[in-house]
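Service request form, structural biology core

Requester: graduate student, group of Dr. S.
Request type: structure prediction, single chain
Budget code: on file
Notes: please return the result as structure tokens.

Sequence provided:
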Amino acid sequence: MTPAPAIRIKGAAETEAGRLFAPVTLDLKSGEWTCLLGASGVGKSTILRLIAGLDAHVDFDGQITASDSLPLPERVALMAQDDLLFPWATVLDNVCTGAHLRKEQPDTGRALELLERVGLGAHARKKPAQLSGGQRQRAALARTLMEDRPVILLDEPFSALDAKTRSQMQDLAVELLKGRTVLLVTHDPGEAARLGQKIAVLEHRGMTEIAPPKGPIPRGVDDTETLTAAGALLRRLREAA
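Core staff response, request fulfilled:
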């Protein structure tokens, strides 16, 4: 894997209906987790798509640059809100989608290991329709991890999971994405407080950075400072509404 670059997003975005978000600057530190929160419709997912080089259906006036000045899209893995699993393919083949699209021989051994890690080892030969919503989301996470890219963009990756599994998958993601530059979009203040080494709240009028709790990630689910930070983040989101 190539070294993970730092990334700067600077600019504003508009849609046909008007301004999506005012001029903002967001710096993603190399090898760290940045959590982005905000109300629905303020452009959080748009920022992910812009970084990934995908059509975000907006007019973006600004720049997205990497610290090493190299192109970003081929170094990015994006996990979207929807699992986007191919219904006709097995879970294993879905995890290997990237290799199949590139006409490469997939590393099925690694894919099976990832499925074991996310609790789907016994479901590798099943089709997505045979999985629950949470299982499908875990399969999508395994597919993202399979790409082994230095920049990882996660759009509500744990939202369909129950509380216990969500915390376990958060821990696993931190372990498996060590050294990557990660941008996590979430609506969950508790998740941001656990995982954010940098936390930002996006609004139509701009962006505000919030100091994260101290200590390494993932922070304890019952850590007092983490719980306090989650409460403060929720208050901030309520004020921004």
